[in-house]
Amino acid sequence: MTLKPYSQPLKSILLAGSIALSLVSIQPVAADGGGTYSGYDANRDGYLDRDEFEPFAQARRKRSASPDIWAFESVDSDADGRISEQEMVNALMREVAQKQRRNR
CA 66, CA 47: separation in Å to the nearest integer? Predict the structure, then answer.
């Protein structure tokens, strides 16, 4: 993924499945499953619908030892047809927990 400087206030970013606080905010140039949540929210409504979520999910499935985590229905835990940022974070945390269990 190519990154370029982005002048926005401090915010949490998701990179490679981990949560970090960035002093210099960045903006993804390519949708590769490692960029910020808002980078996939094309209509800027604060949620990802199935079409917005799919590019992220495809990239995550390729890199994940648990690709089933990235099924839309699995991430959309409240089944409202859209994925909130918290639901995305929860899925990332499930993936990390599964990876840690396998590495024990």
Answer: 23
How far CA 38 is from CA of 14, 33, 48, 65, in Å, comes to 10, 12, 9, 25
- The values of phi and psi at residue 20, to 5°, are -140, 155
4-43 pLDDT, tens digit each:
444 444 444 444 444 444 444 444 433 444 557 888 999 9
Q: 3-class DSSP state for residue 95?
A: helix
| Burial of 101 (C-beta count, 10 Å sphere; 0-12/13-18/19+) | exposed
pTM for the whole structure: 0.64
Q: What's the rounded Cα separation, in Å, for the pair 88 and 40?
A: 12
